[in-house]
Amino acid sequence: MRRILLFSVFLLTVFSSSAQQSKIITGTVTDQKTGETLAGVSISIKGTAKGGVTTRAQGEYSISVPADQPAVLVFRYVGYHAKEVTVNQQKTINVALTEQNNDLDQVVVVGYGSVAKKDLTGSVSSVKMAELNKAPVRSFDEALAGRVAGVQVTSADGRPGSGVDIVIRGNNSVTQANSPLYVVDGFPIEDPNNNVVNPADIESIDILKDASATAIYGARGANGVVVITTKKGKQGKPVFSFSSTLGVQRMAKKMKMMSPYEYVKYQLELTPALTGTPATPTQIYLADGKTLDYYNGVNAIDWQDLVSRTALYNNNDFAVRGGTKKLKYAVSTSTVNQNGILLNSNYQRYTGRAVLDYAITDKLKIGVNANYSFLKQKGIDPTRGENGATTNVMTSILGMRPVPSEVFDLEDAFQDPDMNAANDYRINPVINLQNSYNVTNTHNITANGYAEYAILKDLKLRSSFGIVENKAENDVFNNTKTSTGRPGGTNGVNGKITNNNYSNWLNENTLTWDKKISKKSKLNLLGGFTLQKRHTWSNGRSVTQLPNEDLMFDGFDQGVQQRVDPSASDWTMASFLGRINYNYDSKYLFTASYRADGSSKFPSQNHWGYFPSAAIAWRFDQENFLKKSKILSEGKLRVSYGQTGNNRVGDFDYLTNYFNPIVNTYTFNNEYVPGVIPTKLGNSDLKWETTEQVDAGIDLGFFKQRISFSADVYRKTTKDLLLNTQLPPSAGFGTALKNIGSVENRGLELTLTTQNIVTKDFTWSTNANIAFNRNKLISLAEGQKTLESTINWDAAWRNVSAYVAEVGQPLGSMYGYEWLGTYKYADFNTSVNGSGVTVYALKPEVATNGNTRTAIQPGDIKYKDQNGDGVVNAQDYVKIGNGLPAHTGGFSNNFTYKGFDLNIFFQWSYGNDLLNVNKMLFEGNSNNLGNFNQYASYENRWTPQNSEAEMFRTRGFFGGGYSSNYVEDGSYLRLKTVSLGYNLDPKVLKKVYLKTLRFFVSAQNLATWTKYSGADPEVNTYRSVLTPGFDFSAYPRARTVVFGTNLTF
Q1: For all residues of the chain together, what is the average pLDDT?
Q2: Is the pLDDT score of 65 beyond 60?
Q3: Which of 69, 299, 614, 848 lies at a C-alpha separation of 20 to 30 Å from 887?
Q4: What mean pLDDT comes out for the span 521-548?
């Protein structure tokens, strides 16, 4: 009893002490602008782990704070700026919170200016850089895929340093470039190397999509515009930042090949002539009493494993930024070192950037932004080979036999001794990769300076001058241990040096008048003149039959010199531009622009092109009947129309080209005389490809922008396409470039952003987008209905049509035979010959596959006879697929919990087909080389015991055309990026003089869900608008995991 009494006294003492050391603060929280009370505001005591309180229905609150020391209350509410209030002696604290409006007040960079997002009249998307920078990639464009509605990003393969293709709202041109214009800190670049821009230097990326936004760039705006603004210094003490990542990359997917047992079984089914070996398969594999079953216990040589590696990835960034009221500065450096997952491949980048802005007076400002980049890309192009498929690196890797030899070490042998070197040019892929030398060094300098003078308070003159200097040298050397320099090869030991250079300068002058002309009216006028010139030049040297490979490039004088034609070219563009922005009462917005471009790329009568645009928008959320809505926080309707151009043509395409053969080719009166040959007929009527675009959009926000939604519908029509058209024989030329034809794109874009949960310690937000685009070829030349395309991936297929563009249909349609599986026993009449062997004769009513009727056997590949003439040939080609997706998109979820942050990002493509040429080579195509190993899937081929199989028998392939057998669904969903980070407590960091410190782990290409049987569904190895989705021998894609840290001090 005594213990209970003592314990009770102790509790009373504690509670009494607690009561004496705390006090109650009460108050009301309101909206600063409207005065309305706010319910659900989170209130906590700064620097404590004690749980907070929330305001009640009328905005009232009550919270206990320490009485013996100052406390700081933190007020947080979704859509409002957080506010901190120090508690002294007061007992009542009323707080008014300011509406945050981060999203609506966000400044978006558009052509020659910037505007608040809420005042946009066009379709402009801003990339969330915080998410983008969490992807472990070397260039910003790699991380754009799936981030923005209507922006399709495709990488050709996984080679370090390889570029990506970006298409905005579909392909506008059939033969010319469809990539967007890039504007980096005001400098427009048509054909950029995006690797030269360090992603850590980028402040913002804004993508201009509709004509009202892009028409200010006139002749270069048809494909959309990507506006990149780099980071600048800000007033204040210098802030130093450093980030470093170190990680590993591995091949994301290995192809499953035949085991030694299945491979030997397949070889025994081939005739000796098809194996490509000097000995028969029986002599090679069944010697010394071996049987087929012997190979069940043989371990396979995994060539994919031998040529690949765990590759290191390292990226380091350092920057210092700061300034005074007059002078602001930013200096940054970056290094990237990325080993390729295939042997002897690597990518390196070194960049340095300096930005200075100086206010000489209150009216005059000057500045400069300069960047230097050095890029080094090492490794051979996997899609190329001297003899097509036989010497191609990736096909050699997959096709090497998996069966070890008991006589020699196949892994160390230069060539397989059991192989017939007379017609099989493959060599050991490990040795080939280790000895290949293919290095490209690129130096890039970009500098842009400006002067800005405020003539009047509302009138500003800005003049800028910029340059780009780019020098790229590609050095290739093929010694005797490479596939193209091997003994007996056509060129012997060989090499080449190629220099490709360009310089570009730009002068821009703009005058801007920004005036509030009445209480409710704002007017912004822009006028300008620009002048730009680009000069390109190239030269090189190519040598074959080098006698001393040890000298490499120093021994070039000893070899057989090959002709390399130097070239030089340039173009100049002068432009006048103007734009008007009118804002009435923040409700009714109007924008109109006009640009006139004069280009040297076109003949004198077509030098100039004129590109107008107009857009209107209505912010109906500002109307009186909605202005006080607690649900709708944004509502805007947009409509725009405009014309833009595409000048991505050759510098002198309108002129007739001549060729000087140099050697004595022509004889007159039995004497050689010099002369030139016309090689391409000019056209003095060439003009711009012009795109007209209509766009309508709506922007909605709910609950103080906790939910925001945008939708755009558009139609783009491009006319005067630049195409080669057939000429009459009397012209002396087969074709000439003319403005003929048109193409259309229609689409729908949807974007949704939500703040799902926002509390003191935990937040969860989601971003999602989806885009639909329908492409259609409207017309070609008069009387022309189709345009066929071939792909030169192998000598046997270079003249075979692979794709077709047909009027009224989308571009990118695959073209070939409709595959029907295999010929079954029921397709044949049978008889028995004198030797007692059953003979199969194709029934007269059954069409051939292009082979002779007597040669066709049960199990052979079968195609559909479309025209019913009994013979399958090129007249039976039909569309068998399309490489364009029905829709693309992406979605991300961002979580924060106290110091932790987690980003999970998915991207997808749906409805596109892929032409899997690798499958054509490695599922029974003995027409190439029979001793190629095959995919494991070919084990399910037709045999007399498996006579209902749809995969043709050994020796049952017959070519002549592509077929639907090799067209696959390329749709996929990819877990693109996962990033987990932890931010240390600022109070702890302050003790060691750090501002922020974050540790993170990030992964790229973690998982892919797809029906595609190939290595990767995100592939387009030949990167042409007419041939999308062509998969042949792509460099494998990597799965990347990196660890890193970011710190500022």
Answers
A1: 89
A2: yes
A3: 614
A4: 95
- The residues, any chain, with a CB within 8 Å of residue 655's CB and separated by 6 or more, are 682
Would you list the DSSP string of 2-44? HHHHHHHHHHHHHHHHHHHTEEEEEEEEEETTT--B-SS-EEE
In this structure, how many other beta carbons lie within 10 angstroms of the beta carbon of residue 667?
9
The whole-number pLDDT of residue 270 equals 85
Comparison of pLDDT for 996 and 49, the residue scoring more: 996
Residues 323-329, mean pLDDT to the nearest whole number: 92
Q: Is 1035 helix (H, G, I), strand (E, B) or coil?
A: coil
> How large is the average pLDDT for residues 148-172?
88
Give CB contacts under 8 A, 24+ apart, made by 722-728.
Answer: 722/173, 722/175, 722/176, 722/649, 722/653, 722/686, 722/689, 723/174, 723/175, 723/780, 723/781, 723/787, 724/175, 725/781, 725/784, 726/781, 726/784, 727/681
Secondary structure of residue 809 in the 3-state scheme: coil
Site of tokens 């997959």: 398
Confidence of residue 645 (pLDDT cuts 50, 70, 90): very high
For the chain, give the longest Cα–Cα distance: 137
Q: What angle do CA 905, 906, 910 make, to 5 degrees?
A: 160
Beta strands in 703-795 (DSSP E): 707-719, 722-726, 735-739, 742-758, 762-779, 786-790
How far are the Cα atoms of 389, 420, 421, 520, 907 from residue 417, in angstroms, in the given order?
20, 8, 8, 87, 47
Mean pLDDT, range 136-162, rounded to an integer: 87
User: Under DSSP, is residue 711 helix (H, G, I), strand (E, B) or coil?
Assistant: strand
Residue 327, both tokens: 């002078």
- CB 591, CB 212: distance < 8 Å: yes
Tell me how far apart the alpha carbons of residues 663 and 542 are, in angstroms, rounded to a whole number: 18
- The DSSP secondary structure of 896-959, one letter per residue, reads EETTEEEEEEEEEEES-EEEEHHHHHHSS-TTS-TTS--BGGGGGB--GGGTT-SBPPTT----
The single-letter DSSP state of residue 545 is S
- State the pLDDT confidence band at 926, using cuts at 50, 70 and 90: low
CA distance 344 to 987: 47
pLDDT at 106 exceeding the cut of 90:
no
Question: Strand order in 71-76's β-sheet?
Answer: 53-54, 42-45, 71-76, 83-87
Residue type, 837: V
The identity of residue 903, as a single letter, is N
Nearest to 943 by CA among 953, 956, 958: 953
Buried b (16+ CB within 10 A) or exposed e, 583-592: beeebebebb
d(CA 506, CA 504): 7
Nearest to 872 by CA among 896, 899, 891, 853: 853
More confident residue, 636 or 405: 636
Whole-model pTM? 0.87
Region 440-465: what's the mean pLDDT?
96
pLDDT tens digit string along 944-959? 999 999 999 998 998 7
Residue 802: strand, helix, or coil: strand
CB 100 within 8 A of CB 178: no
Q: Residue 441 and residue 194: Cα distance in Å, rounded?
A: 15
Mean pLDDT of 912-928: 88
First to last CA, the chain: 61
Q: Is the pLDDT of residue 216 over 50?
A: yes
**CA angle centred on 326, ends 324 and 329, rounded to 5°:** 60
> H/E element holding 1048?
strand 1038-1048
250 — phi, psi (to 5°)? -135, 155
Average pLDDT for 825-843: 94
Phi, then psi, of 389 in degrees rounded to 5: -65, -25
Instruction: Give the model's pLDDT for residue 18.
Output: 42
